[in-house]
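Severity: low
Component: inverse-folding endpoint
Summary: output formatting inconsistent between runs
Steps to reproduce: submit the following C-alpha cells with default settings.
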C-alpha cells in the first residue's frame, strides 16, 4: 500500500451502489460489477479521498470494537487489490 497517510478514493469509473434485486451492496465499473460483503462496503464507504488509510482502520476498529492491529493487514490488502484493478486511487500520491 502507498502509505497509511494516503487518502484513497473511488476511481471516477467506479460507483458504490445497492443492487435492487439482490439487496446487496455492489461496486459498479465499466468492465463489470463486484458484489460486496458488509466489510468491503464499510471500507469503501470510508474511501472518500479525505480519510487516510490509518483513519479508515481506526474508524472501523471503533465501529466494530476491535484493535486496529487486527484490521490493518486486511484493510490494506483489500485497498491494494482495488488499487491494482484501478478502482481506487490515491490522488494525493499522484504526480501532476
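Observed output (run 2 of 3):
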Amino acid at each position: 500500500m502507498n502509505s497509511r497517510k494516503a487518502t484513497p478514493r473511488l476511481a471516477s469509473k467506479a460507483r458504490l451502489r445497492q443492487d435492487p434485486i439482490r439487496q446487496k451492496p455492489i461496486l459498479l465499473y465499466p468492465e463489470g460489477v463486484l458484489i460486496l460483503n458488509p466489510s468491503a462496503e464499510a471500507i469503501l464507504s470510508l474511501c472518500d479521498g479525505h480519510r487516510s488509510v490509518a483513519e479508515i482502520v481506526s474508524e472501523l476498529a471503533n465501529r466494530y470494537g476491535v484493535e486496529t492491529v487486527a484490521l490493518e493487514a486486511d484493510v490494506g490488502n483489500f485497498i491494494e487489490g482495488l488499487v491494482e484493478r484501478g478502482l481506487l486511487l490515491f490522488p494525493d500520491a499522484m504526480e501532476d
